[in-house]
Amino acid sequence: MKDYNCKNQCTWCDGCGNYGILTAIKRALIELGLAPHQVLICFDVGCHGNMSDTLVGYRFHGLHGRVISLSAGAALANPDVPVIAFGGDGACFSEGVGHLVHAIRSNYNMTFILHNNGNYGLTTGQASSLTPRGEKMDMAPLGTVEEPLNSMDFVFSLNPSFVARGFNGNISQLTNILKSAIYHQGFSYVDVLQACPTYNKFVSHEYLLEKCYECEPMNFETARKAAVDTSEKIATGVLYQDKTRPTFLDQLEARKGIDSRLVDEVKKVDVSALLAKFS
């Protein structure tokens, strides 16, 4: 794993779930035989984004809520390079929810890993769209008043081609989930439940250890039901996968019969004559 190691020290709180996710993604990339120069890793703004300083490789740190759109563009430009995007529940289901909708709808060939800790950790514990109603947060000391989005029901309503859920405390399972997600041809949505020991007082590491259980892939309806119902237990693993659904590029009539990549078709164009008309 030394190829992906960096001398920069992690700045996450003790017990943060990001440590487990960082370990799992490094293991997954290594087991897939991908070197740091063979993959693009993109980060949104948030605590998880500090991973860009602790993971060697091609990294891109985007704007808040925009990591899926920039990653989709990279994946379309060069399909030969696996693209992995990381984002938090705040950025993904508030500022960037529109990008998530169309990435699933279009089935861009990329992997999105949601760091789901139920709050905005980087800005000190504000409630996110996934924070349960009534929870007392730093910016809602009397408790949140809004109903949370049901993220899994939302994702399944968009007819995804790959949905998985993991837990940062089960690194072995999470590694296998990430390998399957990266290998999948299409948009891979991976929800990673993680503890936030500083700001999330309602979901602890021990809580997730007790509630999470491993399951095998299911058909669409069964997977959706299992993903949504977390009242007693929380299903983890690759919940659903459709290997037959074509990716966005594969569906474009204009690209059929063309072997080159979009990145190969970019060239310099002399615009001096055009500029001269306006000088």
Report on the structure:
With 279 residues, this protein is of the alpha/beta class. The protein has one domain: Rossmann fold. Helix content is 31%, strand content 18%. The protein contains 10 helices and 10 strands. It has helices at residues 18-31, 67-77, 89-95, 97-106, 151-156, 171-183, 205-211, 220-228, 248-251, 272-276; strands at residues 40-43, 58-61, 83-88, 110-116, 119-120, 126-127, 162-167, 187-193, 212-214, 234-241. The chain has an 8-stranded mixed beta sheet, with helices on both faces. Helix 8 (220-228) links the parallel strand 9 and strand 10. Helix 1 crosses helix 6 (171-183) and helix 3 crosses helix 4. The radius of gyration is 20 Å and the shape is globular. It starts with 17 loop residues before the first helix and ends with a helix.
Descriptors:
279 residues, alpha/beta, Rossmann fold, eight-stranded mixed beta sheet, two-stranded antiparallel sheet, 10 strands, globular
